[in-house]
Amino acid sequence: MIVTPGSATLHELRAVMEGEALALPMGWEAPVEASVNALAARIAEGEALYGVNTGFGKLASQRIAGADLAKLQRNLLRSHAAGTGPCLPAPVVRLILAMKALSLARGASAVRPQVIAQLLALLEGGILPAIPAKGSVGASGDLAPLAHMALVLIGEGEAIIGEEVVPGAEALRRAGLAPLELGPKEGLALLNGTQVSTALALAGLFTAEALWLTALVAGALSVDAARGSDTPFDPRIHALRGQPGQIRTAAALRALLEGSAIRESHRTGDARVQDPYCLRCQPQVMGACLDLMNHAAAVLTREANAVTDNPLVTAEGEVLSGGNFHAEPVAFAADNLALVLAEIGALAERRVALLTDPVLSGLPAFLVREGGLNSGFMIAQVTAAALASENKALATPRSVDSLPTSANQEDHVSMATGAALRLAEMADNTAAILAIELLAAAQGVGFHRPLASSTPLEGAIARVREVAAPWDEDRHMAPDIAAVKRLVERGAFTGFVEGG
C-alpha cells in the first residue's frame, strides 16, 4: 500500500496497524534530501542550532564540537531510553514506525532518506522495537518511548520478532540491515514527536468505534427484552434537535428494531408511558459519543500526518525552533475517547440493572426462573457495576495535569501518552460490560418466546448462543462472559448495524 506523506487516511493507518505493508510514492526522497542539504549549509556557517550542535533542553546553551556531533546523537538516544513498564503491543508499534517514517518523509526534519528507509525496513520485516509503555509526558514529544524505538536503528536496544525478544544488533542482522551512523539532528528528529501518544490514541479510537456499534446492538436488544418503546427513536424528535450523532444513532436503533414481533405485541395498551433513560435516551447519549469520536478522528488524522519534531527546516532552508512536539491536541482527543468509553459502559450497565430488576423490566428477577434457588444474573450485574465504576475513575482528564520537567525548561506538558495509554484498559472493561448486557438481553428476549425480535437482533442472539446457552439454572457465569467478550473484541456484533 502506497501512502503519501502528509495525506494518510484513517483507513490506511488502520491497515498498517493490522499488518499491511507500507510504501512511499516515487520521488519522496527529493524534499528529504533538500532539508538535509539546507541544514548542512547552516552547520557549515557555524551557526548555533538547537539539538544539532548544542545540548538539549536546559543544556541548550552548551555548544558541541563538530567532531562530536555523531556522538551527541547516539548519546541522546541512549540517555533518553529511560522508559519502564510492559512493552507496547505489536499493532501500536507498527503504527509508531509508520507514522514516524511518514512524518520524516515530509522533508522538514533534515533526516537522510536512509533513516526513513530503515524504519520502513523494520516495519516490512516484522522487526518491532521493544518500547516500554510508560515514561512520556507528551512534551517534548514522546521522548523515552521513541528513544527505545530509535535505538534499534543503530543496533542497540531490543526488538521483538514474533514472540522472541532479541538485541537490536541481532534484529538488524537477521533482516540484513546495517546499524545506522546518525547524522546531525537525526537522533533528535527520531525521538522528538507525538507518534507514540497518537498511535495509542488511534488504537483507542478504532476500538471505541467497534464498541459503540456493539453497544447499539446490545441496547436495541435490551429495548426488546424489556418490552420498551421505539417511539423515542422517531426521526422527527431528533431532527428538531439537530445533533448529527444523535440523528444517526436514532436511525441505527430504528433499523435494528424494525420488524420485531415483540415490539408489535405491545404497541397498544402498554401501561408504561415512558421508558427509563437508559433505553429512551440512547440516541442522545450514544449520539454525543459518536460526535466526540468523529472529532477525535479528525484531530488524530491531522496529527498522524503532522511534522512534530523540533527544530524544523523549511523549504527555504530556514531552521525554526518551535513546539509542535507538544501533544495537547492528542491529550484532548484521548480524554474525549475516555469519556466515550466510560459513557458507553455506564449506559450499558444501567440497562443490565434494569433487565435484572423485575419491577422495571417485568421479567423474572435476575433473569432466571425459580429465583431464590437460582441467583441468575445477580452478580453479573455487580461485575458490570464494578467495571463501570472503574472506568469512571479512569476517565478523569489527564490533559489538565502537568508536571514541569527538564529543570523547568519544559514547564507545561500534555500528559497525552498516559491519556491514550489508559484507553486500552477502559476498552477492556467496556467490552466485558457489553458482553454481560448481550447475555442478559438475549436471556430476557427468551422469556417472550415464541415472539421473535427483528432479523438483525435475532442474528445477534444466535451469535451469543453459539458460545453461551440460555440460563435455565445457576452455573459458572465467568466462562459465558469471557466467551461473549471475545466475540465483542473481534467485532462479531458490529455488522448487525446498518453501515457499521
Automatic annotation (TrEMBL):
HAMAP family: His_ammonia_lyase. There is a cross-link at residues 139-141 (5-imidazolinone (Ala-Gly)). It is found in: Cytoplasm. InterPro entries: Aromatic_Lyase (IPR001106), Fumarase/histidase_N (IPR024083), HutH (IPR005921), L-Aspartase-like (IPR008948), Phe/His_NH3-lyase_AS (IPR022313). GO terms for cellular component: cytoplasm. It catalyses: L-histidine = trans-urocanate + NH4(+). GO terms for biological process: L-histidine catabolic process to glutamate and formamide; L-histidine catabolic process to glutamate and formate. Transmembrane segments: none annotated. Pathway: Amino-acid degradation; L-histidine degradation into L-glutamate; N-formimidoyl-L-glutamate from L-histidine: step 1/3. It comes from Teichococcus coralli. The keyword Cytoplasm applies. Contains an active site 4-methylidene-imidazol-5-one (MIO), which is formed autocatalytically by cyclization and dehydration of residues Ala-Ser-Gly. PANTHER family: HISTIDINE AMMONIA-LYASE (PTHR10362). This is Histidine ammonia-lyase.
